[in-house]
Amino acid sequence: MTKVICHADASGLPATRKASDVHVILYGKGAMPPKVARIGSMLLDPISRLKLGIRSNAFDFLTIGLAVTAADTFVLRSDADDRWCRRLELTIPLIDPRPWNAVRSMLEHALNFLSGDHWSLRFKRGGPRPPSKAIRDRRRIFIDLSKAECACLFSGGLDSYVGVLDLLSEGRRPMLVSHAYRGDRKYQANVATFLPTSCPRFAANAHPTWSGATEISMRTRSLNFLTYGALTATAIAEFRGLSRVDLIVPENGHIALNPPLTPRRIGSHSTRTTHPFFLNAIQRIMEGVGLPVVISNPLRHQTKGEIMARHATTTADFALAAAGTVSCGKWKRKNKQCGHCVPCLIRRAAFHAAAIADDTDYREPDLEKIANDPQIRDDLISVLTAVSRSRTARMEPWVIQAGPLPEDEQERFACVDVFTRGISELGNFLRASGFP
C-alpha cells in the first residue's frame, strides 16, 4: 500500500516523512521542499475568472479530482507487485468532508473500475478554498457565464467538436470545458475557430509536477476532466438560479464502451474514461453530495464514422476542421498523431466510413509498413484479430468484458449494436486498405 497524503499548503507537511509516502501540495505554487509534489498551481486563475464565488461541494470535487490525478501520476505501476495494479491510500483535505464521507465507498468503487487499482480514500477537514472575492475583484477579464446554459467537455477531439456542433444546431449555448495540457491548448483553440458560433471557454491544466519519475498510463484523467465540468456547470447553475445544469460528455459509443480487442487487454488495460458504468457512478456521487449537474453523452449510440457522416455534407469546412482535431492516444509523446494506435485506427476508419479524405498528418500513414514493423504493429494486429473474431463472436458477452451495461433493455441493445457497427467500420477500412 502506497500512502499519498495531500496538503492545503506546505505548512501541513510533517517534519519527518517516510520515504515510501508521497506528499502533495494542492494548488501549490513556487518551489517545493525536496521530494514533495504539487498539482493545480495553474487552476485558481481560471476559476477566479468565473467571477462568482464557487460552491464548496463543487470546489471539493475539484480537489478530489486533483488528488486522484496526483496519486495516479506520482505512484508508478511498475512498483506494484504485478507491475500494474497499485494499492493506493489517499488522504485529501476538504472544506467539508461530511457529504463526501457519505459517498466515499461509491467513489472508491468508481475509481477501482476506472483505473484497475485498489483505492482507499480518507477525507479530512482543512481543505483548500476557492479564490476569495478580493482576488476575483482584481480580475479584468472574465469568463462570461451569461452566454452559457450548459457545459460541454471540449478536448479538441473529433467527437467533442461534433458534440458542440450538435448543441449549437439545437439552439443551445454551451460553455466549452477544456483540460488544456501543455500543447493541447493551441489545437483546441484552432478547432474552436471552426465552430459557427463563438462559445465561452473554461480551460485549465492540472500540471502535476515533482522531482521523481511519473506514471504515463493516466487511467483516471477523465475524473479530473469531469470535475472541471462539474465546477463550471455548478457556476452556471448559480449564475442562472437553476436547480440542474447539463454537463455534456460527447464520445462515440464504440470508444466509450471500449471492449477489449484481445484477451490480454481485458480490464483496465483498455481505458474506461467515458464508459457508461463510470459516468453513471459519477452521476450518483454528484447527486449524493448535492451538485446540480446532469451528465449525458448524446453520441453514445453512434460510431465515429456515423458522427462524421452526419456533418460531412451539411457543415462548412467540416473536413478541414476534422483533420485538425486530435484522436491519438500517443499524441503527447511527440505532438503528432501516430496513425497506428487504436484511437488513430478508429479515426482513420471513421474518415473512410464517412467518405471524407483523411488529411490528418500521421507519423506513420502507411498501414502495410505498420504491419511489418514489430515496434508499432501491436494495435493493428489487435484490431485485425478483433475484426476476425467479430464474424463469429457473441457480441453482448464481449461488450460486457469492458464493464457492466445499463439495466435498461433498450440501452443494453444500443450498446451492443454500436460496438458491432464500430467493429464493422474498422473491418471495412482494413479491407479497403488491402487487409483480408
Essential attributes:
436 residues, 5-stranded parallel sheet, 12% strand, alpha/beta, 18 helices, globular
Mean pLDDT: 94
Tally of helical segments: 18
Structural class: alpha/beta
Contiguous uncertain segments of 5+ residues: none
Q: Whole-number radius of gyration?
A: 22 Å
Strand content: 5-15%
Order of helical and strand elements: EEEHHEHHEHEHEHEHEHHEHHHHHHHH
Q: Within the largest sheet, what's the order of strands?
A: 3-2-1-4-5
End-to-end CA span: 47 Å
Q: Give the overall form.
A: globular
Largest sheet: 5 strands, parallel
- The percent of residues in helical segments reads 40-55%
Number of strands: 10
Tell me what the structure shows.
With 436 residues, the chain is α/β, with parallel strands linked by helices. Among the domains are: 2-41 and 53-137, no CATH class; 327-436, no CATH class. Helix content is 42%, strand content 12%. The protein contains 18 helices and 10 strands. The strands form 2 sheets. Strands 3-2-1-4-5 form a 5-stranded parallel β-sheet. β7, α7 (184-192) and β8 (201-204) form a beta-alpha-beta unit. The chain is globular. 46% of the residues are buried. The model has no long low-confidence stretch (mean pLDDT 94).
